[in-house]
Amino acid sequence: MAQLELDGLVKTFSDGSDEVVAVDTVNMSLNDGEFLVLVGPSGCGKSTTLRMVAGLETATEGDILIGDESVIGKEPRERDIAMVFQNYALYPHMTAKENMSFGLKMTTDLDTEAIEQRVAETAEMMGIKDLLDDPPKELSGGQQQRVALGRAIVRDPAVFLMDEPLSNLDAKLRTKMRTELKRLQNELDVTTIYVTHDQTEAMTMGDRIAILDDGVLQQVGTPLECYHRPANRFVAGFIGSPSMNFIQAAVEDGSLVHREFTYALSAETAAQLDGYEDVVLGVRPEDIQLSTATGPEQTVTATVDVVEPLGDLFHVYVTIDGKQYTVTVEDGADLRNGLTVGLKFPEDTIHLFDSATGTAIK
Ligand code: ATP
């Protein structure tokens, strides 16, 4: 167990004459035993960050500390970390048991009996006791991932690094393994960075999540902090499903003015917009109140485009001034395409962003 700190971490790759900044001055501090999910779109630098911590990639600048000790310059095997990959990376010619024991034989001075015992205990914990003599090709994807996790756990490292470990599993198994992995990590209490591009995985698994875009860390916070108080428009759009709706509006006399509506703000919110000529209004699909009544008590009138029933909920796609927005409602059975509806944006749920920088104002 250990704290983990990334201090001004930079990675640039030379691509012919071009230089790609894959990771741009990332600062991050994980508490002992914390499960931090590093999330962001494809190509934002998640894997590169993780690979630098693992020692598989050299940092261009910055420091990485495990406990109080810098691991820059240390070989991967000297870093007391265990990594789990998306493609499991099991040795094909070894049985599950040999896969799990191999790292221990190479990096510890435990004797054969002690190794056997640790592998057996871990296999029991992972529910793979009966698979120990099988080679990877005889195991299903889910079983292979259990062996890969078992191989990481058995080493009892200071830090776990996981790079999209559930991506190759089907949706149902992924949800099951998500819960299991979270429970295991809780039990083992090992400091963990878990990389994913899937915001649902991030929201459900992370003690905290770190959101990366274009190599730059956008926000680090608990899932609910990032959901309720996104630091900027990128985080607001990335966290939450379906995504937050954004509407550009002018600021005039304490109101947001759009071609289709004028939204009178409270004095308190209006004061926050002092000096702004325009802003981006953000409103989550689940925060919009939709009604078939239209009138002055509604924020805006919209036309229903498509209604998607999900069982417990409906996603309703509506058009305002030629642009499509999403609304989530519980009761959408009577909604039809082409219907005119009223939408209300309760002020305590709206977000406001600087239209130039994207920084959150409210
Ligand atoms: P994904 O989810 O698609 O794996 P990611 O967020 O993990 O994406 P990285 O793989 O870390 O992103 O890549 C970050 C950026 O660095 C990308 O622009 C990528 O093209 C670039 N990059 C990564 N590895 C190299 C390399 N070895 N040489 C040159 N560029 C690289």
From TrEMBL:
It is an enzyme of class 7 (translocase). It comes from Haloarcula vallismortis ATCC 29715. It is found in: Cell membrane. GO terms for biological process: carbohydrate transport. The complex is composed of two ATP-binding proteins (XacJ and XacK), two transmembrane proteins (XacH and XacI) and a solute-binding protein (XacG). GO terms for molecular function: ABC-type transporter activity; ATP binding; ATP hydrolysis activity. Coiled coil: none annotated. It comes from the Archaea. Belongs to the ABC transporter superfamily. Carbohydrate uptake transporter-1 (CUT1) (TC 3.A.1.1) family. GO terms for cellular component: ATP-binding cassette (ABC) transporter complex, substrate-binding subunit-containing. Keywords: ATP-binding, Cell membrane, Membrane, Nucleotide-binding, Translocase, Transport. Gene3D superfamilies: 2.40.50.100, Nucleic acid-binding proteins (2.40.50.140), P-loop containing nucleotide triphosphate hydrolases (3.40.50.300). Part of the ABC transporter complex XacGHIJK involved in the uptake of xylose and arabinose. Responsible for energy coupling to the transport system. It catalyses: D-xylose(out) + ATP + H2O = D-xylose(in) + ADP + phosphate + H(+); L-arabinose(out) + ATP + H2O = L-arabinose(in) + ADP + phosphate + H(+). It is a peripheral membrane protein. SMART domains: AAA. Its EC number is 7.5.2.13. This is ABC-type D-xylose/L-arabinose transporter. Residues 4-239 form the ABC transporter domain.
